[in-house]
From TrEMBL:
Family: Belongs to the autotransporter-2 (AT-2) (TC 1.B.40) family.
Domain Trimeric autotransporter adhesin YadA-like C-terminal membrane anchor: 776-828
Cross-referenced InterPro entries: Coiled_stalk_dom, Pilin-like, Serralysin-like_metalloprot_C, YadA_C
GO cellular component: cell outer membrane; cell surface
Protein name: Trimeric autotransporter adhesin YadA-like C-terminal membrane anchor domain-containing protein
Stretch forming the signal peptide: 1-33
Residues in Trimeric autotransporter adhesin YadA-like stalk domain copies: 249-284, 300-333, 405-441, 597-637, 708-741
Transmembrane segments annotated in the record for this chain: none
Length: 828
């Protein structure tokens, strides 16, 4: 028996055990570089002294040798036992069956020979298969480490030192992301992101979080708008150096040179300083004034209409002031026209004074008939709106304290416009109002003079009437004839010719008044001199109005616009970075007007270039309204004077024609707004013929005329006003709604009954019937349709041969109605 194989096996086993022991010893050490000739180096491998190997193998071989010795002894005993067996002895001979010598391994010598020589080592190769020496650079890759000492991460000097805090693991969730620092994190889906620093987090793709606690959470954007820049822009990600509530400064930044470079505080301060040179600024911190720097003034464009009221502080634009200028110009023209008419009136008064004196007796003869006509006209005037005269150029309303005309649409405001304007259209310039007030006062004095003259004439007429009354006894004989004449004239003016002879006698008396007329003419010549003086004053007034127009034009140029920013001289909607001769209010929509608020009250003077506010213009408008009212009153007075003069002149020229005109007016021919008309052609005057048809006639006979202040009708034939009509319509609508509601209720009731009837029909149809010959069947059924239910009960019977069937049924539904039906059938 040979034990060489066993010995080799033992040696191999011992070597394996030794290697395992070495591995166990190595695994118990920390994976870090050891000082003073380490046994294990992650780059240069394993290095062991011979004594370390022999000590380890010796410890492993002792139990193996003991076991092997015991095994050998057992084999020897078995060999001796086998030799003592006769059969075995006969075959193999007596004695030991096997020749087994003593085992002498000499393990100590073997270990000594094995451990002799150099140290036992396990070297490390690089990725190219080259042996790594202790002095070579070494990069280590491993699945994990256990840190002996926690240190901060340092990268530099051709090495990485420190791996942070054990357990505070950083995480880069995507292959192309980087996370450096305790708990640094690039979240799932944050491709190509970087998080550097403790607790730094990159949450979106292509983002960078720099510094402890920084969060990069703004994703790339496409087609977004940037404040202060035109067009749209795209970004791939964001860089964050902090988080919400935890901000950092970026310092030592070089000034940017490209559009996409970061700008420094120094650059921004410089840009603001440069912008301040071109911006429109308040004069001081009080913000009470703004001074524009344009040479010769600066134009402000795109100013929205400012509010015009007593409290407005909004800037007004040139269009608003132009409207005011047109109104002022119209007032000036009206004043000039009034001045001319006053002059004419004064001349007419002079002429009238003589003619009145001449014809006082003739007027007295017609006084009775005129008085009657005046009474009739007075009654007519109290009930209708009338033109002031046959020219239809003026209407005087008769309400106590004046009459308000409401809902007047904006009239055209131009030099040729004849449309009525409303209160919102009356505007003016304050500097012109004062001058106009003085001019109006001068005109008012002249009107007062005219009124005094008219009053004097009226007194003289009254005196004449008194004198005529004193002559009543002298003409008693003629009164009866005149009364008869008046009646006959009214019926048939042709009868007046019969009185011609008697009138001729009276004409002689009229001739005697010629001398008195001559005397009065001398007095009138004195008045003429005063008129000449008035005409000179009017010329002066015209010159002042012209000067006012020039002043208004200057003011318009000064206050046309309000400053807010410089704009292009050629395009007011385009902002300019440099001072220009033009500024504009530019809002969110560059093409839309912008309201300028909080405008301080401007200085109102010939040289002022301050912007005026709505309150100032409103005050001006109020004064213009007062002036306009005064002008209207003066115009009305002058129109009245003119009408009176014209009427007196007409009466003096021909009393008969005057009376005829008054009669025509009373008949409603051309002057009265409410006229008799023909039903077939109501818009054309019928010459005063009394009919059962009337029409409202305006300046344009083809257009309808609004009738205001209509009282509530009480009788069947009274006119109703809009309120009555609306009340009537409301009652009709309410009644109609009530009837429709009742109808809806009835229809709903009908629908419910119909649904119940349908349910009854369905229940009846659901009753089965007997199908056997000579059979009987009692059946029940239920029907339901759209919320209604019916129950049916039926009885059927068949004949002996099954060819005849009779059936009777009854129903009752949830609406409380019952029904019954019966039927029979025969088969053949």
């Amino acid at each position: 028996m040979k034990f060489n194989g066993k010995v080799r096996l033992r040696t191999v086993m011992a070597g394996s055990a030794a290697l395992m022991a070495v591995a166990t010893a190595l695994n118990s050490q920390e994976a870090k570089a050891q000082s003073l000739q380490p046994a294990v180096d992650v780059c240069t491998g394993i290095s062991l002294e011979p004594s370390a190997v022999t000590d380890i193998i010796d410890q492993a071989n002792d139990p193996l040798i003991t076991s092997l010795t015991s095994l050998t002894d057992n084999v020897i005993d078995i060999n001796a036992y086998l030799g003592g067996i006769p059969l075995v002895g006969n075959i193999l001979g007596t004695g030991d069956v096997l020749d087994i010598s003593d085992v002498d391994i000499e393990i100590d010598d073997i270990l000594a020979s094995i451990a002799a020589g150099d140290n036992i080592g396990l070297t490390v190769l690089d990725t190219d298969g080259n042996l790594i020496a202790p002095s070579d650079n070494c990069n280590l890759t491993a699945d994990g480490y256990t840190l002996g000492t926690a240190q901060g991460i340092t990268i530099g000097g051709n090495r990485i030192s420190g791996l942070g805090d054990d357990g505070a693991t950083g995480m880069a969730n995507d292959l192309d992301s980087i996370a450096i620092g305790n708990r640094a994190l690039t979240e799932v889906g944050a491709d190509a992101s970087v998080a550097i620093g403790t607790d730094a987090t990159a949450q979106v793709a292509n983002s960078v979080a720099l510094g402890t606690g920084s969060v990069a959470d703004r994703a790339g954007m496409a087609g977004y708008s940037a404040p202060g820049l035109a067009g749209t822009y795209n970004s791939v990600g964001s860089v964050s150096v902090g988080s919400a509530g935890n901000l950092r400064q970026i310092t030592n930044v070089a000034p940017g040179t490209q559009d996409s470079d970061a700008a420094t505080v120094g650059q921004v301060v410089g840009a603001v300083a440069e912008l301040a040179d071109d911006a429109v600024l308040y004069d001081d911190d009080a913000k009470t004034s703004v001074t524009l720097a344009g040479a010769g003034g600066t134009i402000i464009g795109n100013v929205a209409d400012g509010e015009l009221s007593g409290t407005s502080m909004e800037a007004v634009n040139g269009s608003q002031l132009n409207t005011t200028n047109l109104n002022v110009a119209q007032n000036a023209a009206d004043i000039a026209a009034i001045d001319g008419r006053v002059t004419t009136n004064e001349s007419d008064i002079v002429t009238l004074d003589g003619r009145v004196t001449t014809n006082e007796t003739s007027i007295a003869n017609m006084d009775g008939r005129v008085t009657q006509n005046e009474s009739d006209i007075s009654d007519l005037q109290a009930l209708s709106v009338q033109y002031s005269d046959a020219s239809q150029s003026n209407i005087v309303l008769g309400g106590a304290g004046g009459t308000t005309i409401s809902n007047v649409a904006d009239g055209e405001v131009s030099a040729t416009s004849s449309e009525a304007v409303n209160g919102a259209q009356l505007f003016a310039v304050q500097s012109q109002v004062d001058q106009n007030t003085n001019d109006i006062a001068a005109v008012d004095m002249r009107v007062s003079t005219n009124e005094t003259n008219i009053t004097n004439l009226d007194a003289r007429v009254t005196t004449n009437e008194t004198d005529i009354s004193n002559l009543d006894d002298r003409v008693t004989i003629n009164e009866g004839d005149i009364a008869n004449l008046d009646t006959r004239v009214t019926i048939n003016e042709g009868d007046i010719a019969d009185l011609d002879t008697r009138v001729t006698v009276n004409e002689g008396d009229i001739v005697d008044l010629g001398t008195r007329v001559t005397t009065n003419e001398a007095d009138i010549s004195n008045i003429d001199a005063r008129v000449t003086v008035n005409e000179g004053d009017i010329v002066d007034l015209g010159t002042r109005v012209t000067n006012n127009s020039v002043s208004i034009t200057n003011i318009q140029a000064q206050v046309d616009n309000v400053p807010i920013g410089y704009v292009s001289d050629s395009d007011p909607a385009m902002a300019s970075a440099t001072p220009t001769q033009t500024t504009a209010l530019i809002g969110a929509n560059p093409s839309a007007p912008v309201t300028l608020n909080n405008v301080a009250a401007a200085s109102l003077s010939a040289g002022s270039t301050d912007a005026v506010n709505g309150a100032q213009l409103y005050a001006t408008n109020q004064q213009v309204a007062v002036n306009t009212t005064n002008i209207a009153i003066n115009r009305t007075d002058i129109d009245t004077n003119t009408a009176n003069i014209a009427t007196n002149r007409t009466d003096i020229d021909t009393n008969t024609n005057a009376i005829s005109n008054i009669q025509n007016n009373y008949s409603g021919s051309v002057v009265v707004a409410v006229q008799y008309s023909d039903p077939d052609n109501p818009n054309v005057s019928n010459g005063g013929t009394v009919t059962n048809d009337v029409a409202l006639i305006g300046a344009d006979s083809s257009s309808p005329v609004a009738l205001h202040n209509v009282a509530t009708g009480v009788l069947p034939n009274d006119a109703v006003n809009v309120q009555q009509m609306q009340d009537g319509l409301s009652m009709a609508i309410d009644y109609t709604d009530m009837r429709f509601a009742q109808l809806n209720y009835d229809l709903e009731e009908l629908s419910e009954h119909a649904n119940a009837g349908t349910a009854a029909a369905m229940a009846t149809a659901g009753l089965p019937q007997v199908i056997e010959s000579d059979g009987r069947m009692m059946a029940g059924a239920i029907g339901h349709y759209r919320g209604e239910t019916s129950f049916a009960l039926g009885f059927s019977t068949s004949s002996n041969d099954g060819r005849a069937v009779a059936k009777v049924s009854g129903t009752v539904n949830t609406r409380g109605y019952a029904g019954i039906s019966a039927g029979a059938g025969f088969a053949f």
